[in-house]
Each structure stands twice: as structure tokens, then as C-alpha cells.
Amino acid sequence: MSEKEIFQTPPLFAAQAAVDGDRLRQMTEEAARDPERFWLGQAGRLDWTWRPTVASGSSFADDVSIRWFADGRLNASVNCLDRHLAERGEQIALIWQGQEAAQVERLTYRALHERVCRMANVLRGLGVGRGDRVAIHLPMVAEGVVAMLACARIGALHVVLFGGFSAEGLADRLNDSGAVVVITADEARRGAKRIPLKSVMDEALARGVPSVRHVLVLAVTGLDLPMHDGRDLALGPLLAEASPDCPAAEMAAEDPLFLLYTSGSTGKPKGVVHATGGYMVWASFTHELVFDHRAGDVFWCTADISWITGHTYVVYGPLANGGTVLLFEGLPSYPAPGRWWEVIETHKVTTFYTAPTAIRSLMRDDGGTVERHALDSLRLLGSVGEPISPDAWVWFHEAVGRGRCPVVDTWWQTETGGILIAPVPGAVPQKPGSATLPLPGVELALLTDKGAVIEGVGEGCLCIARSWPGQARTIWGGHDRFRQTYFSFCPGYYFSGDGARRDEDGYYWITGRIDDVINVSGHRIGTAEVEDVVATDHRFVECAAVGIPHDIKGQGLVVFAVARDAAEPGLADAASLAVTRGIGRYAVPERVYLVPDLPKTRSGKIVRRLLRKIACHELDGLGDLSTLADATIVGRLIAVVGSAK
Ligand code: PRX
């Protein structure tokens, strides 16, 4: 299909959408003409104990300082809960659907408020207060949302950790954040499998994490586990005893709300810091605008709460807007294909937001179950996390949305807090594969790799020229790293790490990461991280990791490793094991090639571009090899990869 194919908003949707083309143009103009006024106006969507009188005071120059609504005061959990009690206390805030069909819990705003207060009191009882870090390591159960909002209530920063991280990955993040309390569970259910959350956490803590005073353990499967005296506490009984009232801490807008770890092109994962006021405005603004949120919607974002998508569009955005969110514990095809469609039907989901990896695998393995479900409740579909190819987009639109639902392809990052590029569905016609246009107030720029601004049609490095409220403030414990990573590429611009193309209609087409970050099933993995963990096995002299296209995962990881003694057996498995031990199972390489050497420039830099081509068997056009210190290596690498085919 030609990328120029345009999908106009389906008429029924357009007739009811809150924002049409004229309104969007007006918002975009207002935000550009007088950003201060526009954003102070948007701040009005929250309840503040002290309404801000200034919007931005940010600068991308010199030391880089991002500040929004600086004199405002508020509490994020009050904005997600308390302020809704009078008007919609009995409305369902959270539907939890467990893995088994019969496991359903519906929490009204009043019930969720009470659960959050109890959890907040448990934390306060353990001496947790403002500015402390609390690690949350839970499956997709209501307590995950409850724990996040409980931290927000008492001014503690949550650090949500993915259940798929290895013990080493957990320990690194706990030590970096200095978490004082961990909230985990006995196990997570994952189809027929069980993930031993508590015992992996025990292993992490055994590596030495002096800051952690207590581990709260939620019983999910009821497994009987050893508890460390004085450190581990069963969470259920503490919640039952805790008071259901908990006054909220009044926070400054710039007080951090949470840290969230993500991978970059260098070194260890970094704790991205988001601040309360700006993040909450952005979460609420983008959720309402991009998802055309209205009363009665049932919003299902399939992301795990341990990723930024889960933070912003499972928790803060929809709850700030008084919506009803669905939290699903299970997998798309457990116990059988079609499970997701059943969930949509059972709970009358109106808005379904998922990832291209899931769409691609459903497209391939759904076995036509989608056709056997009416899916009448759906009115809008969304995609996030990776480029979505036009064929997957069209399948999503036709097979799931029955041509009735616009598809919003949303581009953003952990660092952006919320969506920056997406078609506002009642206003912007969609082109499959394009995230389309920036939201009001988002000033994008395409730069050449030398930092020159590209005007009009062109392709380059995707940058942002001006701060927006949801922007990350810093990297935990590393402002200099923050400045270096995002603002040194071209002074005055935030550099996203992505490449993009702008077409004749001004639409953006994200082409993928152009730094050394690989996106495997929407999980960001730094090549440097992989290389570091393989290097911990001294049987390897060095290694290089690259990403190659993968039908389902988007990208797959391939490792080229140079062994000290190539004759030793089991080395490829050892390299894979080093990655799963050091990072987690989700990072397991597709292939490990044991090679005699790596292609390097004369100054010793590994030429990953070449490795990528060889791993993809793209042997025509390997490019200029004259910069290599030893060009003969190319033939030897091709031979290794070829013989493993
Ligand atoms: O490469 C882009 C890709 O995901 C990266 C951000 O990953 P993360 O911080 O984990 O956040 C994911 C959820 C927002 C980006 O740098 N990405 C995200 N959305 C899209 C995308 N690539 C193409 N199209 C998208 N819609």
C-alpha cells in the first residue's frame, strides 16, 4: 500500500469528537502565540491547593533547567481520587480482570480512594515520607495502581520495577534509587507459568542493597515463602489494619513524582525523574485530547504499569480525567487465542491502546478469533512503543476496529512523560505508519547529523525545540548525564535518539532509534548494557550487540562475541545466559555469533553498521571498508554468520 493512503476520520466518530480540525488549529495557534497563557489555562484541568501563576521557566541552554508551574502546589493522588469523590464517587475507576475469567474486581473511585489511603498509611507507618523512594515490583494487580497513588499521596517517589528484570537488574536499580521500602508479591501469573517475584527480589537484596529497610509482600498466588525476620512483612494484614483516612501531602509542582528506569546508549539504565505538576498536566491533557476521552469510556491500555505507558495511560491520565480504566493481568492468548477480544466484549471497552508487537503477533496467530467477536463497544484504537508498519495498522483498523475506529499512532518516550506526536482523532486524517502531527505546544525540529535545521520535506534526527510540561526534569543523581545525553547533540534542542521523516503534509514518520538503543517488543535495551554484562564473563575478550529487524518483536538482539579460547564448548549459551542474568529474560539474544574479531576503525571504534548488515545477510552494499583497521575481518564474519544460517 502506498504510504500516501489517507484514512479520513470515520464520519460517526467525527460527528461526536470533542476536538475537530478548527478547534485543534485554534489550540495549536494559541499554544504557539502565547504559551504561557495556554499552559496556565491547561493547568486549570487540575485541582491545586495553590494555583500556579507562572507556566514555564525552562531553559535548554547551559546547565539545562526544566521547570513548569513552579509556584503551584498540589497532590497527584488527590487529583486522581479525592476530587472525583463528590461527583463520581460511585463510578467505577478501576476494573481489574484477572487471568481467569471469573477473577474480576470493580473498584469505585470511593473504594480506590480507601485502598490508596490504607496503603499510604502502611507506608507512613514504616516511616516513609516526602522524597523517600519506594520500589514497586508487582504483577498487574490493583495493588500496583494503589501503591503508586499511595506513594504520591505521601510525597514519596515510586520506582516501579518490571517483573522481568533479573536479580542483578533489580539490585542496580534499587541501589541507584536508594529505595527504602520494596513492595513485591509472592508470584506473578503468566499464563500457565508463575514468575517468582519475591524470590528474585530476595536474590537482588542478597547482592547488597543497604537502603532497603522493609519488603512488603502481597499474597497473589498464596505461595508459602520464607520471610526475613524484621525485614519482610505480609502486606495483606497491614492493609486490613490500616486506617482508611490519610491526609495528602501538599507538594510543590516541581517536587518529583516518580523515577522510572530506562535504557540509553551508554552505561547502566538511568532513573528518569518526572515532576508532579507538569507531568500531571501533560498526562491529563494528552489523555483527553488524543483519546477523545468522554464520560462513559472504558479505557484499556495493555501496557505493564512498570513502563511509562502504564504510568501515564493506565494510572495518571485516565484517573486524573475521572475515567474508568481496565487493568488486565493476563496474556493476549491465554488460555486460548481470542482472550483479548473476550475482555473487550465483557467489559465493553471503548478505547484500546496497545503495542505494534502485540498487533503483529495477533495478526499472525489469532486464528481468526477476532471475527467471532462483535467488539461493538470499541470506538478508538491506539498504538505505541514502536513504528507500526502500514500492514499492521490496516489490520488493526479493519479487523479490530471494523473500519469504524480511528487508529491513533502515538509517538513519545519515557523522557517525554506523555504523547507528543499523534493524530487528534476527530481532527487529523491518518496515514498508516505515520504518527502524523505534533500536539499543540510541541515544537519539533528535524536536524541533520551536523545539527543543521531541515525545513520542509526531509529526513533527520528528531529533536524538540522547546520544553513542554511533561518533560523529564533530570536523571536521578546525574544531571550532567541528562544534559549530555539529550542536549549536547545540538545546543538548544532536546534530542530524542530517534530518526524521522517529514512528508509534504508535514506528517512525521518515525524511522526508529539512531543511537545505540534497541527496541525489542517495545522494551528499550542499550547495546552498551548488553556488552557490559557479556564482558563480566571473562571467557570473552569483547563483544558487540546490534539490533536486526524481527517479524514480531520489531527488533531482535544479535551478539557478536570474541572468545579467549574459541575451542571451549558452550560459549554461545554462556553469552546468552550472561544477558538474561544481567538484564532479564526479555533481552535474550536471537543469536550469538562467536567471531575471531570485531570490525573496528583505525581509532578502535566498533563499526556496528557493518555488523548489522552482516547479521541481516545484506551483503550487497557493505559500504566503504577502507576505514577499517583490518578489512579482512569482513569475509571472516560473513563466513561465521553464513555457516550458522
Ligand atoms: O524509538 C521510539 C519508540 O520507543 C522509544 C521510546 O521508548 P520508551 O521510552 O520505552 O517509551 C515507549 C512508550 C512511549 C522511542 O524513542 N517509539 C515510541 N512510540 C513510537 C515509537 N516509534 C515509532 N512510533 C511510535 N508511535
From TrEMBL:
Enzyme class per UniProt: ligase
GO term, biological process aspect, one: acetyl-CoA biosynthetic process from acetate
Family annotation (PROSITE patterns): AMP_BINDING
One Pfam family from the record: ACAS_N
Gene3D superfamilies in UniProt: 3.30.300.30, N-terminal domain of ligase-like
A GO molecular-function descriptor: AMP binding
InterPro entries: Ac_CoA_lig (IPR011904), ACAS_N (IPR032387), AMP-bd_C (IPR025110), AMP-bd_C_sf (IPR045851), AMP-binding_CS (IPR020845), AMP-dep_synth/lig_dom (IPR000873), ANL_N_sf (IPR042099)
UniProt keyword list: Acetylation, ATP-binding, Ligase, Nucleotide-binding
Domain AMP-binding enzyme C-terminal, first and last residues per copy: 529-605
E.C. number: 6.2.1.1
AMP-dependent synthetase/ligase domain: residues covered: 82-467
Residue ranges constituting the Acetyl-coenzyme A synthetase N-terminal domain according to the UniProt record: 25-80
NCBIfam families named among the record's database cross-references: Ac_CoA_lig_AcsA, PRK00174.1
Family from the record: Belongs to the ATP-dependent AMP-binding enzyme family.
UniProt-recorded name of the protein: Acetate--CoA ligase
Species for this entry: Gluconacetobacter sacchari
Organism lineage: Bacteria, Pseudomonadati, Pseudomonadota, Alphaproteobacteria, Acetobacterales
